[in-house]
Every structure is written in structure tokens, then in C-alpha cells.
Design a protein that fits this description.
two-stranded parallel ribbon
Length: 300
């Protein structure tokens, strides 16, 4: 966005000190939980061998992105809000805007990529492991990073209408692909279960459409990423509403309490994801417990 044209509302910083203190304190707390939680998940995923390497790589990328939100983005957001009453806020806002869109956008696209990966695992059958390789997934991640970085620069440096349009396109595209993938997975699994009941087959060999994978492990990962994306949806709703309001009315005020609250809810998603990993994937939960037991203060 054109920084010189931004309208800033920092009255709440002066007139609503309790709200200001609460927002800052909450972001400090969430930065801590996102950092610790995602560090444990990254370590746990490194120890696991039961998850297919390309899928595990995508999960690790998602956890690393959430880790960066806690370590980099949230401290910057706290610094930005503290500098709003001064002339330094413009530099902080430009940096915060680029990094926020980059990391949050990559988190969104990575979660979408995991959904598509799970759909391909179901549809390709025996061909999945030969088609979806670790090398190809790494190339995909690099491409996603480049695309998100370019979009974040456009979002942060272009006019308000263009910036919001870019944000809408990215969000809607990811949500559409995620919903489509999960709907297709749900229907395909129901179809396979119906076939098994009708044919009374003890096991299935693929002729191109079977499921040559650990179905329980598959369901765990699908369930986990479904919860991750549901959390993404709810956490992005406030900022989505903020973008709509800033597009159709002259209401765009950087630093307002609604702007701060919407960003805080987005950042909160980075603290939620480790909970879903531990809740839905038993192997990750056990690896996290093992890691915690190795820390002196938790070993007792």
C-alpha cells in the first residue's frame, strides 16, 4: 500500500490504555507459545519415520512458518503498535506488512498443498510414491515461496484496491482448493468403504485406483490438516472483514484496535497448529512427550 496515503488511528493507544496493554501482552504470550510449540513439532517430525517424506516435509514447512511468525512477525507487530504515536511507524508498517503477508500467505498455501497431496495419495494409488517425490515437493515449496514473496511485495507496495484484490484472490483460491480436496477425499473414502462392504474383500490391490498406504495414518493426517484449515478459516475471518471494509468504505485505519485485533487473531493460528498436530497424530504426540522428558525441568 502507498504508505504516504495511509490513515492512522492511534486514539485507542492513548484513550484506551487497557486495550492497548492487553493486545500487546497477548501478542507477547502468543509469540512465546508459537515459538515453543512449533519448535517441539519440528523436533517431533524430524524423529518420525512413519509419515511419507514429501508429506512430512510439507508439515515441517508449515511448522517452520508458524515458528517464524512467533519469532519474527509478532515481535515486529508489537514494535509497530508501540511506535504508532511516533513518526517511525511507517518503516515498521512496511516491514511488518511484507513479512506478515509472506509468512501467513505461505502458511495458507502450504496447508492447501498438504490437502492436495492427500488427495493425490488417494487418487493415484500405487503411482503416488513415484509421482509425488521429495525432490518435486521441494521444488513446489520453492515456487510457493517465490510466488508468495512477489505477491506480498505487490500487496505492501501497491494501491489499496490492488493490494486488497491480491489478498482476496490468494485467500479464495486456497480455500477453494482446500474445500475441493477435502470434499473429494470424503466422497472417495465413502465410495471405497462401500465397495469393501459389498465385495467383502479383505484387502485391495490397486489397478491404478487403490489405496496402497496405511489408511489409519492417512486418515490422521487428513483429519489434522482439516482442523488446521478450519482454524485458518476462522482466524482469517476478521482480517478478511477488515479488507472488505477498507475496500468499500473509507475506513482503512492502520493501527486501529480492530486492525490490531484482526492481526492478533491471524497470528493466533500459529499457536493453534501445534495443538492439532499433538491432538490428532499420536506419533507426534509421543515424540513431543519424549522431547519434553529430555528437558531437565520436565524430566522430574
Amino acid at each position: 500500500m502507498e504508505i504516504s496515503q495511509l490513515k492512522v488511528n492511534y486514539n485507542w493507544v492513548i484513550d484506551q490504555t487497557p486495550s492497548f496493554v492487553f493486545i500487546l501482552s497477548l501478542n507477547v504470550f502468543l509469540a512465546f507459545t508459537a515459538t515453543i510449540g512449533n519448535t517441539l513439532i519440528i523436533i517431533a517430525l524430524h524423529k518420525l519415520s512413519s509419515i511419507h517424506p514429501p508429506t512430512k516435509f510439507l508439515l515441517r514447512c508449515l511448522a517452520m512458518t508458524d515458528f517464524c511468525v512467533g519469532v519474527i512477525v509478532q515481535p515486529l507487530s508489537v514494535a509497530f503498535w508501540m511506535e504508532i504515536p511516533t513518526a517511525k511507524w511507517r518503516i515498521h508498517y512496511l516491514t511488518l506488512g511484507i513479512l506478515s503477508f509472506t509468512f501467513c500467505g505461505f502458511s495458507l498455501t502450504t496447508a492447501t498443498a498438504i490437502s492436495v497431496d492427500r488427495l493425490l495419495a488417494l487418487l493415484l494409488g500405487l503411482r503416488y510414491r513415484h509421482t509425488v517425490t521429495l525432490r518435486r515437493v521441494r521444488c513446489l515449496v520453492v515456487c510457493l515461496w517465490l510466488v508468495v514473496i512477489v505477491i506480498s511485495l505487490v500487496y505492501s507496495l501497491s494501491s489499496r484496491v490492488i493490494a486488497n484484490s491480491v489478498g482476496f484472490v490468494l485467500l479464495i483460491t486456497c480455500l477453494f482448493l482446500s474445500v475441493f480436496s477435502h470434499a473429494k477425499i470424503f466422497l472417495k473414502l465413502r465410495q471405497r468403504q462401500a465397495q469393501v462392504r459389498q465385495q467383502h474383500v479383505g484387502h485391495e490391490q490397486a489397478n491404478g485406483g487403490g489405496i496402497p498406504l496405511d489408511i489409519e495414518q492417512y486418515k490422521k493426517i487428513v483429519s489434522t490438516i482439516a482442523w488446521v484449515q478450519l482454524a485458518l478459516l476462522f482466524c482469517y475471518i476478521p482480517v478478511f472483514i477488515f479488507l472488505i471494509l477498507s475496500t468499500i468504505v473509507e475506513w482503512y485505519k492502520v493501527g486501529s484496535i480492530f486492525h490490531a485485533s484482526a492481526l492478533t487473531v491471524v497470528y493466533f493460528n500459529s499457536s493453534l497448529n501445534p495443538i492439532f498436530y499433538c491432538w490428532k497424530i499420536r506419533e507426534v504426540r509421543e515424540a513431543v512427550k519424549t522431547t519434553l522428558k529430555q528437558i531437565p525441568c520436565f524430566s522430574s
